[in-house]
Design goal:
Blueprint (H helix, E strand, L loop, with lengths): L8 H8 L6 E5 L10 E4 L9 H8 L5 E7 L6 H10 L3 E4 L7 H4 L5 E4 L9 E5 L4
Parallel strand pairs: 1-5, 2-5, 3-4
Antiparallel strand pairs: 1-6, 3-6
Catalytic activity: beta-D-ribopyranose = beta-D-ribofuranose
Pfam family, one: RbsD_FucU
Protein name: D-ribose pyranase
Amino acid sequence: MLTHGILNSQLAAALAKLRHKDQFVISDCGLPVPQGVEVIDLALVFGIPRFSDVLNAIKADLVLESGIMAKEACNKKPEEWVKESLGVPLTYVPHDGDEGFKALVSQAKFVIRTGETTPYSNVLLRCGVPF
C-alpha cells in the first residue's frame, strides 16, 4: 500500500500517463464535460474536496508550464488559489463561447472533478518537462 502521494488509483494512473504538452482540467463540481473526455470524480459532497486541496495535492507530482482560466475568475479566489498553489503563468479566455474555457475542455486528457462550489474554480493545465 502507498504511504504518501495520490491514493486515488484512477487519478494516480492518469497523472502518471501525462507527457510534455498534455493538458488536463481541475474543475468545480458544475463544469460540463464533453463526451469522450475522462472524468476523475473526486466530489463527495458540495465543498469536499476543495479545489485548492486538489491543486495542493497534485503540485508535487507534476511539472506544469502554463494554465488557462476563465476571465471571470480574475481577481477572485479561484485565481488566487491557482497562483498560490502552482505559480504557473496564466492566460484568460471567456468562460463561454466557441473559444471559451468550456470549449477548451474538449482538448483535455481528463477532468478532475472536485466538490468545489465557488464559481469559476476551473483551470486547464499544460504539462511541462523536468529537463
